[in-house]
Write a structure and sequence with these properties.
The complex is a heterodimer. Chain A contains seven helices and ten strands. Chain A is an alpha/beta fold. In chain A, a hairpin with a 2-residue loop joins strand 4 (about 65-70) and strand 5. By secondary structure, chain B is of the alpha+beta class. Chain B is about 55% helix and about 20% strand. Chain B has helices spanning about 1-15, 15-55, 85-90, 125-130, 145-150, 155-165, 205-215, 235-250, 265-310, 310-320, 325-360, 370-395, 400-405; strands spanning about 60-65, 70, 70-75, 80-85, 95-110, 115-125, 135-140, 150-155, 175, 180-185, 200-205, 220-225, 225-230, 260-265. In chain B, the strands form three sheets. Chain B has a six-stranded mixed β-barrel with strand order 5-6-11-8-10-9. Classes of the chains: A alpha/beta, B alpha+beta. At the A-B interface, helix 2 and helix 3 of A face helix 1, helix 10, helix 11 and helix 13 of B.
Chain lengths: ~240, ~400
């Protein structure tokens, strides 16, 4: 028997109810991502790629269709079970970093462990370890607004990794960063993928960034129009 | 789980100090008002209870009767119909524990160059017993003093102070209506009566002395009133009936005529006074509770604003694994902390205000641990009650909406 895919979507549909009537965003998306893959998702804005990412992250539910994460059907889980899944299995890296502004970097990195019920000493030990991994151990007591954007994104990566997730979902992680910092961040993600076998799904509209991945999925108008090699990344409509 | 949550709640409050302080202020004022009102209410009750206790328990006062003269009815006590004999007969009743006749009058007391007009009451040693009134120095007069109508006097604290200043009065001789009297005792202070009279502004002499040597009587042995004490609270009704029957018989009153005396139950009066203060203190507390309610609504208001402001933060927490109950607990704890700190400061302010009221305006106050405990329990309750809705609102946010919130 073939190993179960980490992510498997079957005929996903998603539509938003608006005053002008229902707006379909995802139209029949079936996709499978195995453990250890590094997938880039591209597509013009409004193509449904962000909605797809939100569903993968268990932050939003599809209107119809099934989403299996580690083989379990997300549609059948309650809010607490989804929270536990986000906590244990998934690490998020956002475009806007999304660190808690009032907490120190150490507290930010340790936060997922808090919700996992880990004791304080262990939380701090793990968080420091992860900060060291992203070369920021000297900034543990700093607040997010005291460091640069690239550094903040590295803290966010440390936070995403602290609970040893299977999957990292990165939604335009380099969108707010300059080119050099962007490549630093991407190299970090490549290392995590290669060294620790962490599955990475990345949304971007920059071909340069998408090229770090080994598989490219392109969304247009709510459907998958390309699923395969990353070499076609440049043949990309101008990002909106 | 609790310790880090408390830490977080503390941080969140520190982030907006002025707002947290203003929210606490509402709570603080509410608690201070409750503490102070309870202190004043309890103080009033305590004062009344004390006057009641100083009066003696299970007491009756029998007043001599009204007289009708040419169709004009005079008030109670207008005619001296009671006698020391009546008092002795009442003392024989099984429901009566003690009895004392009183023949009062106003007289001027003179010692050296000082003089003082006061109520001089002729009575028997039993009176002090009934009133539970001790002698501070010297001794009380005895039944043999009553029998032989000796010229001895017991002084109340106020009288002694006015006549003697700091000098020891016992053993000195004073003049009452020109006759010399030996001061044999100084009464213990009794304080104010229920109607606010100074009970220590009085002097006692043997009833026989009063009747024969000081005030005179309209007929032999007459007294203005008789104080009687029932054996127990349960015996009050029986005692009243028996006394009435006995006196009607002794006064040879035919049926269908009015009593020429009046039996009054002082305990019932006292109970009414106690009930009044009890109702008053409950009412004060109730009014103060309203401000507590207003404080609670203030907390709810601020928490709702805070939830809206921190929607994105909630989204981040939920994305990285916070469950609904984690978010709810976080906001509830914030509400409770605000309540409790507000309450703690409120208790201090309330106690301080009560003490100041006591010192400056001489309002009697009593602060009980129970009142403080109650304030803390209510404050926590208010925090939970008014924090629950905003906390629940935060917990119920859909993660995707919360994360997207700008």
């Amino acid at each position: 028997m073939a190993p179960e895919a980490l992510i498997r979507t079957e005929h996903l549909f998603k539509q938003y109810e608006t005053a002008a009537g229902p707006v379909p965003v995802l139209k029949d998306v079936s996709l499978s991502i195995d453990r250890g893959e590094f997938v880039a998702i591209m597509g013009p804005s409004g193509s449904g790629k962000s909605t797809f990412m939100n569903i993968l992250g268990c932050l939003d539910l599809p209107t119809s269709g099934r989403y299996l994460l580690e083989g379990s059907d997300i549609g059948k889980l309650d809010a607490d079970e989804l929270a536990a899944l986000r906590n244990r299995v998934i690490g998020f890296v956002f475009q806007g970093y999304n660190l808690l502004p009032r907490a120190t970097l150490l507290e930010n990195v340790a936060l997922p462990l808090l919700y996992a019920g880990v004791a304080k000493d262990e939380r701090n030990r793990r968080a420091l370890e992860l900060l060291a991994q992203v070369d920021l151990e000297g900034f543990a007591r700093y607040a997010p607004n005291q460091i640069s954007g690239g550094q903040q994104q590295r803290v966010a990566i440390a936070r995403a990794l602290v609970n040893r997730p299977q999957l990292i979902l990165a939604d335009e992680p380099t969108g707010n960063l300059d080119t050099k910092t962007s490549h630093d961040i991407m190299e970090q993600l490549v290392r995590l993928n290669a060294k620790h076998g962490i599955t990475i799904v990345l949304v971007t509209h920059e071909p340069d960034i998408a090229k770090y991945a080994r598989r490219l999925v392109r969304f247009v108008d709510g459907r998958v129009t390309h699923d395969g090699g990353v070499s076609v990344a440049e043949i990309e409509e101008t990002p909106a | 789980m609790m310790a880090p949550m408390l830490d977080e709640a503390w941080h969140a409050m520190g982030a907006n100090r002025l707002r947290s302080f203003l929210t606490m202020l509402g709570m603080m004022i509410g608690v201070a008002a409750v503490i102070m009102m309870l202190a004043v209410g309890q103080g009033a009750r305590f004062a009344v209870d004390q006057s009641i206790a100083s009066m003696g328990s299970n007491l009756f006062i029998v007043l001599s009767g009204s007289a009708t003269s040419g169709g004009i009815r005079l008030g109670m006590g207008a005619t001296p119909t009671l006698t020391t004999g009546d008092a002795e007969a009442i003392g024989e009743l099984p429901s009566i524990a003690a009895v004392a006749p009183i023949a009062p009058g106003t007289a001027q007391l003179v010692y050296g160059s000082n003089n003082w007009s006061t109520l001089v009451a002729g009575t028997t040693p039993a009176y002090l017993e009934v009133r539970d009134w001790g002698v501070e120095s010297g001794y009380a007069f005895s039944d043999s003093d009553v029998r032989s109508a000796t010229r001895v006097v017991l002084l109340g604290r106020t009288v002694a102070r006015n006549l003697f200043g700091d000098t020891e009065p016992v053993g000195k001789t004073i003049r009452i209506k020109q006759s010399p009297f030996l001061v044999i005792g100084l009464l213990a202070p009794k304080g104010q009566s229920l109607d606010g009279r100074d009970q220590d502004d009085t002097a006692f002499i043997p009833v026989t002395t009063a009747q024969t040597r000081v005030f005179g009587t309209q007929f032999a042995g007459s007294v203005r009133f008789i104080v009687a004490q029932a054996v127990s609270p349960e015996a009050m009704t029986a005692a009243e009936r028996e006394m009435t029957q006995l006196l009607r018989q002794r006064h040879h009153l035919p049926e269908r005529t009015d009593n020429d005396f009046d039996v009054r139950n002082l305990t019932a009066l006292a109970n009414a006074a106690a009930e009044t203060t009890r109702v008053m203190s409950i009412m004060l507390g109730a009014i103060a509770s309203i401000s507590l309610l207003v404080g609670g609504i203030g907390i709810m208001n601020i928490m709702l604003v805070s939830v809206t402001e921190r929607t994105r933060e909630i989204g981040i927490r939920v994305a990285i694994g916070a469950r609904e109950r984690d978010v709810r607990l976080q906001f509830l704890l914030e509400a409770i902390i605000i309540s409790l700190i507000g309450c703690a400061v409120g208790v201090l302010v309330g106690v301080g205000a009560a003490v100041i009221a006591n010192l400056s305006a001489r309002i009697p106050v009593v602060i009980t641990g129970a009142a403080v405990l109650l304030a803390f329990i209510v404050a926590t309750g208010v925090g939970v009650f008014f924090g629950f809705y905003p906390a629940n609102k935060a917990a119920r946010l859909r993660p995707i909406d919360a994360l997207r919130y700008q």
